[in-house]
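On clarity, I found the account of how folds are encoded harder to follow than it need be. What matters is that the chain and its backbone geometry are given together, residue for residue. The format is easy to grasp once an entry is in front of the reader. For illustration, here is how one protein appears when written out as sequence plus structure tokens.
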Amino acid sequence: MERENIETDEDKMIKHYKDHKNIVTWFLEKLKKAKIKAERTVGNDPKGDILYYNEKDTEKVQKLARELKDKYK
């Protein structure tokens, strides 16, 4: 695997946050395709980065999250 050109600690953190933002965006798109109403949280919500509105969707959301985790460990 090729090492990325990370020159500073700040570069490393910027990459981390960009990757995180892209993953959350990707997951929100997956939820939308699954007809699950959800949105990104703001303000460093301690409950997480994504808010979904229907408690009945919990099982579907958890299944998609497990699939993501298993695919990209």
